[in-house]
Write a structure and sequence with these properties.
Distance between the termini: 49 Å
Number of strands: 4
CATH architecture of the largest domain: Roll
Radius of gyration: 24 Å
CATH class of the largest domain: Alpha Beta
Largest sheet: 4 strands, antiparallel
């Protein structure tokens, strides 16, 4: 089966209503899944980019040629734009976090000075990151990969300490938690270093 035909078939399977559908442009009942070559003008951070997608999955009226774009179509265009601009794809951001010692979205957001909700939108593909944010993430992921494990443990403990301090707790409770964390920091680092050597 050709890739284009496979895309059309999978698109048709996801729709609860059988095809063909009525076209809103010409009124004929002739709208069905199709794979087309498409060029889109996409605005991204103040600039317009011409994005070409060789195999865009859309719904197309066979009578008048009108195209109906769905979420999948928009996601394909966004992926093509990221590829064209050399930006990380959503799954690459998630993988980068995983390889950076499974850091949370909050920790990544703090490291690159972004909002947690924004990092979440980058990872779901709802928003395309700027080049500056992309470079910041790449730098962060690279430094995490180069950083020794003990340094990553220290960074994690420091992040936990800041979380403890930011939550509304009594002073005595904060002090007790901080002492416990500091006491465990060296022990945890030693245990991890030993595990890595073995």
């Amino acid at each position: 089966m050709k890739p284009a035909l496979r895309n059309e078939t999978s698109l048709a399977k996801r729709h609860p209503r059988p095809f063909p559908w009525r076209c809103s442009a010409c009124g004929k009942v002739d709208v069905a899944p199709a794979v087309v070559r498409y060029t889109a003008n996409v605005r991204h951070h103040g600039r317009t980019h011409k994005v070409r997608v060789a195999d865009l999955c859309v719904l197309k009226c066979r009578a008048c040629g009108a195209l109906v774009f769905q979420n999948d179509s928009h996601q394909q265009i966004a992926r093509a734009l990221r590829r064209q601009l050399g930006l990380l794809q959503p799954e690459e951001i998630r993988e980068g976090r995983r390889q950076a010692n499974d850091i949370t979205q909050e920790q990544l957001a703090q490291a690159i000075d972004a909002a947690v909700a924004t990092v979440s939108r980058w990872e779901t593909g709802a928003v395309i990151q700027s080049r500056r944010a992309d470079k910041a993430m790449r730098r962060f992921f690279a430094t995490q990969a180069e950083q020794p494990l003990s340094a990553r443990v220290s960074q994690l403990v420091e992040s936990l300490v800041s979380d403890v301090l930011s939550k509304s707790r009594s002073d005595t409770e904060k002090e007790a938690l901080l002492k416990a964390l500091c006491a465990r920091k060296k022990e945890l680092g030693d245990m991890l270093a030993t595990a890595v050597r073995e």
